[in-house]
């Protein structure tokens, strides 16, 4: 039998960090579910839903992760996760939308509001500055009957803020 934990590790970025964290979780008998990793400035953030054997509690898992050399000075949080781990229909990605251009206040809010108007669900978002451009990438579920209008409205909203917008269906690689 297993229990699911939400594991979060935030620390200075280091080469081999993902391998070290996931290797330790594997050694503990862990099976990773939804997992994300990102570098923000000089910090790295790893978050995962992990199924672990019943005999392990949150403190034991945290203690094991604290011993990882690549994650020194880490903030490590391990919390029992008692919610369903299967994604519902709005958790699947139908489109990936990229909006980019000059940075200005409210960009993310405006685009997110536009998705919401069409019942679209943002499954994952990544945003940041790169070489003087602010780029946002949204992985979204858009109800099929609203997709064309939603994407056109997002593109119009972006254009109105002097941004570029492009998208692809999730199946288009």
Task: Describe this protein's structure.
By secondary structure, this protein is α+β, with helices and mostly antiparallel strands. The chain folds into two domains: 2-80, 2-Layer Sandwich (Alpha-Beta Plaits); 89-169, Alpha-Beta Plaits, CATH 3.30.70. Helix content is 26%, strand content 41%. It has four helices and eight strands; from the N terminus they run βαββαββαββαβ. The strands form two sheets. Strands 2-3-1-4 form a four-stranded antiparallel β-sheet, covered by helices on one side. A four-stranded antiparallel β-sheet has the order 6-7-5-8, covered by helices on one side. A hairpin with a 2-residue loop joins β6 and β7. It is globular. The mean pLDDT is 93.
Helical region count?
A: 4
CATH superfamily of the largest domain: ACT domain
Rounded Rg: 19 Å
CATH architecture of the largest domain: 2-Layer Sandwich
Category from helices, strands and their pairing: alpha+beta
């Amino acid at each position: 039998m297993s229990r699911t934990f939400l594991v979060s590790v935030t620390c200075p970025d280091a080469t081999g960090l993902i391998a070290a964290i996931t290797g330790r979780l594997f050694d503990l008998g862990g099976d990773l579910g939804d997992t994300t990793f990102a570098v923000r400035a000089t910090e790295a953030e790893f978050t995962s839903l992990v199924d672990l054997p019943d005999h392990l509690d949150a403190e034991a898992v945290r203690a094991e992760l604290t011993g990882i050399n690549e994650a020194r000075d880490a903030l490590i949080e391990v919390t029992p996760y008692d919610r369903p781990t299967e994604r519902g229909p709005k958790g699947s990605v139908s489109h990936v939308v990229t909006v980019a251009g000059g940075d200005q206040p409210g960009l993310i809010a405006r685009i997110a509001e536009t998705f919401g108007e069409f019942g679209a669900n943002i499954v994952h978002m990544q945003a940041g500055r790169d070489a003087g451009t602010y780029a946002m990438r949204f992985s979204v579920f858009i109800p099929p009957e609203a997709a064309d209008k939603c994407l056109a409205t997002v593109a119009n909203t972006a254009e109105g803020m002097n941004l570029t917008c492009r998208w692809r269906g999730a199946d288009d690689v």
